[in-house]
Specification:
two-stranded antiparallel sheet; four-stranded antiparallel β-sheet; 44% helix; 2 domains; alpha+beta; binds zinc ion
């Protein structure tokens, strides 16, 4: 008993603290002491600590105790990420991301019913991270060009890296399916076939699987936006 006490006192007199494995120092779990860090005038004691994220990292006891070091670096990274996101908040690309999510998930959005009824969703990574979205769409052709907006290549597909592009209004309109399942390109084609005089309206309507009334409206330019129909 006296031996242990003496041992303890010797260290105390030397001003040297012995840390115990598993000991929590400023919220971090100490595991083992390692070779000290040499600075220009002294050697600082160093330990290996377990971060709250699970990573092991080496730091000086001084920096841990002064709270200069609070994690393996993950906290700093998270803060930097948050800052980076914050820096983007008023940019057009951030609005593209936010609007995309609104269309798919906000019942108050005017587009929600349309997107929800077609089960259009945003891939998990993009849904949870603006930066992941930004990383994937910023290098696609036409990014940042005025008049181009984010478009799903397959109109029935989701917002995900393989299914988006930056498209101008004309391309987007051509891709958009009308309520009857036709695309603008179909409509152009129907008008051409009709104009050729080679087919009856009924024949064309049957081929495109549309009703006669719809067919009639198409050839009479009644129902579709003629601005996007060339
Ligand atoms: Zn960490």
């Amino acid at each position: 008993m006296g031996g242990i006490l003496g041992f303890f006192l010797i260290f105390t007199f030397m001003g040297r603290i012995e840390y115990i494995e598993g000991e929590i120092i400023e919220g971090l779990e100490f595991t083992v002491e390692v070779e000290g860090k040499i600075t220009k005038d002294k050697k600082l004691r160093q330990g290996v600590f377990k971060c709250t994220c699970g990573n092991l990292f080496t730091a000086t006891f001084k920096s841990i105790k002064s709270k200069n070091t609070k994690s393996c670096g993950c906290l700093w990274l998270a803060a930097r990420k948050a800052q980076k996101k914050h820096d983007f908040i008023n940019t057009p690309i951030y609005k593209v991301w936010a609007n995309m999510k609104t269309r798919c998930y906000n019942p108050n959005s005017k587009d929600y019913v349309n997107y929800n009824s077609h089960n259009i969703s945003v891939c998990e990574e993009w849904k949870n991270s603006f930066l992941a979205f930004y990383r994937d769409v910023k290098d696609l052709p036409n990014y940042g060009i005025k008049g181009y907006s984010l478009d799903r290549i397959n109109n029935d597909g989701n917002y995900e890296p393989s299914n988006v592009r930056w498209a101008d209004k004309y391309t987007q309109a051509n891709n958009k399916k009308f309520r009857n399942g036709l695309t603008n390109e179909d409509i152009i084609e129907i008008r051409k076939l009709h104009k050729s005089g080679l087919f009856t309206q009924r024949k064309i309507a049957t081929d495109f699987n549309i009703g006669y009334a719809t067919m009639s409206n198409i050839v009479n330019n009644k129902i579709y936006d003629t601005q996007v129909v060339r």
